[in-house]
Design goal:
It holds the Pfam family polyprenyl_synt. Its cofactor is Mg(2+). Belongs to the FPP/GGPP synthase family. GO terms for molecular function: metal ion binding; prenyltransferase activity. With 340 residues, this protein is mainly alpha-helical. It has two domains: 139 residues, Orthogonal Bundle (Farnesyl Diphosphate Synthase); 158 residues, Farnesyl Diphosphate Synthase (Orthogonal Bundle). Helix content is 74%, strand content 1%. The chain contains 15 helices and two strands. Strands 1-2 form a two-stranded antiparallel sheet. The radius of gyration is 20 Å and the shape is globular. The two termini are 20 Å apart.
Length: 340
């Protein structure tokens, strides 16, 4: 949990647990074991970045009903976990946050790998459907509720577009894509909007905010820092050691880091593309790709891009009409992104 105030953190954790528990009590007895796996997954605390940003935004824009803000923040965190459950199935990932993924846990229990994946997909769906009902419990007027639902839909539709691009280009890179904007588009759609832009927008709208220009400024700020956040994750995906290892290479992800290496190494481009598109890569092939990236200078180029994006984002942050106290809190979070 990012927020240093212990009571703030514990309030959010309790609200997340309460919402998931309210799902579990509805579940038919023979399905409870599987839904409880999702509860353990959700409560295996990550950074809680998205709900923290929502709460900072809500308080920074003068929100007074903290109960509503906690509920919506918890919903955003549960939606994040629903996306992770699906993402782990798509990427065939065995571990998340140091523990077996939901589909692996269930697959082991059922002694059927495919069934574990099928069940995990539906569990993710159920979590997202359950979240929707909490909009009906918010103490807001009709127009505010309408704006929130509209923004909520936009957020996760855009995220879905990013996921589709990521899937389509993973292990399917060609020469024509090298000079495209695809890695940046994936970073913006799949990460920036639901991680930064829209949690801040949700907090703003929940206060009753209705200035479309301020909303646009928030979104632009989120795009800059969100792309930087994904670029940093791309670095961890290749050079992160135990944080993430070489998963991105194994999965053939078309990241900004890989794209930069391809641009810097035209003489090796054909070989790198052939290796990255290979489905079952040998350890030495993964290491060869990593070595190409390491020696290309792409790492320094992407780090400079991260610094530039964060700098641009911080300038946009100054333009927001949020209180100086919470502007500073957001600035601290964003500054950490540049620390790759």
């Amino acid at each position: 949990m990012i927020e240093s105030n212990e009571s703030f953190a514990s309030l959010l954790e309790r609200r997340i647990e309460k919402i998931v528990q309210e799902l579990i009590i509805q579940v038919p007895e023979q399905l409870k074991t599987y839904i409880e796996v999702s509860k353990e997954f959700v409560m295996n605390s990550g950074k809680r970045l998205r709900p923290t940003l929502l709460l900072y935004s809500y308080l920074g824009y003068g929100g007074r009903n903290f109960e509503d803000a906690l509920t919506l923040a918890a919903v955003v965190e549960i939606m994040h976990n629903f996306l992770l459950i699906h993402d782990d199935v798509i990427d065939d990932s065995n571990f998340r946050r140091g523990k077996p993924t939901v589909h692996v846990t269930i697959g082991n229990a059922l002694r059927d790998e495919k069934l574990g994946k099928d069940v995990a997909i539906v569990i993710g769906d159920i979590l997202s459907f359950h979240c929707i009902r909490y909009f009906a419990l918010l103490s807001v007027d009709y127009l505010t509720l309408r704006r929130l639902i509209d923004a909520f839909s936009k957020c996760y539709v855009l995220t879905g577009f990013g996921q589709l691009l990521d899937i389509i280009y993973s292990g399917r890179i060609d020469e024509g894509a090298v000079d495209s904007e695809v890695p940046t588009e994936i970073s913006c759609l799949k990460t920036a909007y639901y991680t930064f832009s829209y949690p801040l927008v949700f907090g703003y709208l929940l206060t009753g905010g209705n200035d479309s220009e301020e909303e646009s400024r928030i979104i632009k700020f989120g795009e800059k820092v969100g792309i930087a956040f994904q670029y940093r994750d791309d670095i961890y995906g290749v050079f992160g050691g135990e944080r993430k290892s070489t998963n991105d290479i194994q999965e053939g992800k078309f990241t900004a880091l890989l794209q930069t290496a391809l641009k810097l190494l035209p003489e090796a481009r054909e070989e790198i593309i052939g290796l990255i598109n290979r489905k079952d890569k040998l350890p030495e092939e993964i290491e060869r790709i990593a070595e190409y990236i390491r020696n290309s200078g792409a790492l320094d180029v992407v780090r400079k891009k991260i610094e530039s994006l964060v700098s641009e984002g911080l300038k946009l942050l100054e333009e927001l009409k949020i209180s100086s106290e919470y502007k500073e809190k957001i600035k601290i979070l964003v500054t950490r992104i540049a620390e790759t």
